[in-house]
Amino acid sequence: MAGGHSLLLENAQQVVLVCSRGERFLARDALRSLAVLEGASLVVGKDGFIKAIGPADVIRRQFSGETFEEIIDCSGKCILPGLVDAHTHPVWAGERVHEFAMKLAGATYMEIHQAGGGIHFTVERTRQASEEELFRSFQQRLQCMMKAGTTLVECKSGYGLDLETELKMLRVIERARRELDIGISATYCGAHSVPKKTATEAADDIINNHLPKLKELGRNGEIHVDNIDVFCEKGVFDLDSTRRILQHGKDIGLQINFHGDELHPMKSAELGAELGAQAISHLEEVSDEGIVAMATARCSAVLLPTTAYMLRLKQPRARKMLDEGVIVALGSDFNPNAYCFSMPMVMHLACVNMRMSMPEALAAATINAAYALGKSHTHGSLEVGKQGDLIIINSSRWEHLIYQFGGHHELIEYVIAKGKVIYKT
Predict the structure, then answer these.
(1) What is the pLDDT of residue 4?
(2) Where in the sequence is the domain holding 350, given as residue range(s)?
(3) What is the mean pLDDT of residues 374-392?
(4) Domains identified in the chain, total number
């Protein structure tokens, strides 16, 4: 039917499908090379979903009688899936640039945390900020992420800790989900730190007060939350408190997606595999047994190379995880402690510091990151029937998106979400 399509991208040098057979994730041998079409075109329908991908001459004949709202000539350029950022903390007030100077002088993350800095510093500023102030700064951060090619992002609460502020943050995330073009997966992270009480008391408060309220608001359609997160760490939430909170979150329909084995070995990976977690983040201190357990349970590892880089931690053992068949995803960990909007830079760091290949890194920032959020059936690859989220880069080879460290601002010409151009140079 004429006029039935929104967007035609034609004559691309490369269209990087990532997947071509409906895979929900890529692991082991499937990561050696990604599905790529040469000299291809792509059609997105008015409903925002991909209708056709194929050789340019075939698409031209197939749609010869059609009209499009927009046609983009991609000659000499590459089309890739929109990037997926699987771990961020983007709603907060109060910068922590002074702490960066402290870290450079030798202070550790936990030393700053125990001195009232870190999360506690941000919590105080976030509690004081108005909902509108938080939304405006959040909106600006999402815009920066979009310009760097991100079309789906996981967004956590966690700088409130009390119920009132956690709900304020979740309302901000919900407003962005409804009003902005970028895709959002919302995570309740009220167990991000222990707010001047014991871990057991904090867990009781979350289980008895926070989670029932989230369930009520979700049932009423006021706030949609996808995931539950806990910072399982020495001096924060121990394994027993983590288990209790995650299980109760799962019982009200939330996906388990939590911080684990970051600064100390906590057996978080083993716990996540046991509970059926969708994903576990950080994993700098994961055990060999935890890696095997995650691979067996198909629990995604969301690795955060920016965090290890900025905190001078040892790098997560990405190669060991990949070799054991773990589904490896990437996230920016954007927060006041790791101020990075750019998934292309995250992929570059993953390749250099964690020894991932470029195909492995791109899969980790697309289909596997979407899997970590439970959205790989609709996001993370360019396949017919999937959402039309994609980027166009001004290069004849897709690898330049990773190779050019910090060069994405010049490379990315278009960012498209649901078939709509949301950023254009």
Answers:
(1) 66
(2) 83-373
(3) 98
(4) 2
Percent of the chain with pLDDT over 90: 89
Contact of 41 with 34, CB cutoff 8 Å: no
Tokens of 416: 């498209």
Q: Domain check: are 108 and 140 in the same one?
A: yes
How far, in Å, CA of 147 to CA of 414, rounded? Answer: 9
Alpha helix (H) ranges present in 148-238? 163-179, 199-205, 211-219
**CATH no. for residue 141?**
3.20.20.140
- Same domain, yes or no: 348 and 231: yes
Residue 1 has pLDDT above 50, yes or no: no
What would the pLDDT profile of 28-52 be if each residue is shown by its tens digit? 999 988 999 999 999 999 999 999 9
Q: Give the C-alpha separation, 215 to 338, whole Å.
A: 31
**pLDDT above 80 for 185:** yes
Tell me the CB-side half-sphere exposure of residue 67, using CA atoms within 13 A: 3
| Domain co-membership, 66 together with 185 | no
Q: List the structure tokens of 2.
A: 């004429």
Shared domain for 153 and 64, answered yes or no, is no
Place of tokens 């079409």: 37
* pLDDT of 122 above 60: yes
Q: How far apart are the two ends of the chain, measured CA to CA in Å?
A: 32
Residue 413's nearest CA partner among 5, 72, 18, 44 is 72
For residues 125 and 194, membership in a common domain is answered with: yes
Which residues are CB-contacts of 307 (< 8 A; sequence separation ≥ 6)?
262, 282, 313, 333, 337, 338
| pLDDT value of residue 383 | 98
Rounded Cα distance between 289 and 148, Å, is 36
Q: Supply the CATH number for residue 55's domain.
A: 2.30.40.10
Closest Cα to residue 12, out of 50, 54, 45? 54
Looking at the fold, whether 275 and 394 belong to one and the same domain comes out as no
